[in-house]
Amino acid sequence: MSVRASRARRELEYYRRMRATLDHLRRYAIARSLFKPTTLKRAIDKLGFVQADPIRAPARAQDLTLRHRVAGYRAGDLERRYPKLPLEEDFFVNYGYLPRAHHQLMHPRTARTVWPPARAAQAAAVLEFIRARGAVHPREVDAHFGHGKVTNWFGGSSNASTELLDVMHYRGLLRVARREGGTRVYAARETAAGPDTVALPLDAGAVSARMDALVDVAVHKYAPLSASTLGQLVRHLRGGAPQWTAHRGDALARAKQRLAHARVDGVDWYWPAADRPTSARWRPDESVRLLTPFDPIVWDRRRFEVFWGWAYRFEAYTPAPKRKLGYYALPLLWHERMIGWGNVAATQDGLRCSFGYIGGRAPRSAAFRAGLEAELARMRTFLGMAD
Predict the structure, then answer these.
(1) How many domains does the chain have?
(2) Which helix (DSSP H) or strand (DSSP E) does residue 342 occupy?
(3) Global pTM value
């Protein structure tokens, strides 16, 4: 064994024996997620899943997530390039974009409810209509069939055709071919036989393997995870793979055996077995970053509070008089500290920003001021305001 290999082995054993602390876990969470910017495809492959949200303040969540991780990323790049990338829009632990290999783990998906004959016939007619045209906007389906209106989940009124297309997409009959102005344009999924087709069940071993792979996708994105959040994500798989709801308990038990684990300050934490949170490689850089509420570093609100000692809340659906941070407050990360939040809006007069700080005021450091100016310059470029 060479001197270099021997030194590397001793270093690896040293970090393996080192007890993880909350500081280690915080640095690990930041540095593993904010990897060196790469191509769009590679970034999504590394993340495993990108959560989507329609609110644009100042851009959609998927764009705000990817701008830190994709070199030269501009708002809307994912939507523009999606038709040529091996990606799928679908529900996983929440709704978003996945590599096709991950998407296929959940399908064929068996919904929790059985359609009555009339509904199945309606879906079959829509599926035939879409197959004949290749790709269809919801308004084309509505114009052809005139399905009328339905009450949506928040009490408002929606086109029944749009609701049916959403359900057909979830059941695996359709895929999102592209978006037009943010609206999903659907195509028939090649593997979809019909609304009343029942997929052959997988054997127990295949189900376990797929569930383990799905759990690993979630863990890889959100690690390190407390035991409670790990359990929450496994429960959320009911949305992505409802046909295997009864297998979630066993999948969680296997995950706890498979993953690396440590008890830190009375909390059990889990992460991929190949990672070493105590390693010196996990060093967050000195940059200042505005993160979306759905960023992997921010998503777990309980972990956020444990790591940084204050409670971040997403207040877009909170009545304005009751908001404390703002409609779409972006957590403000500096090095490994979450020091406050910013509200950012693109206006005709430029980028309008307001900030709040946990310490009551902005850090006096010249490095912070320079870092914040650099982040705002990146935001302007991302939004196309620097052109």
Answers:
(1) 4
(2) strand 337-347
(3) 0.90
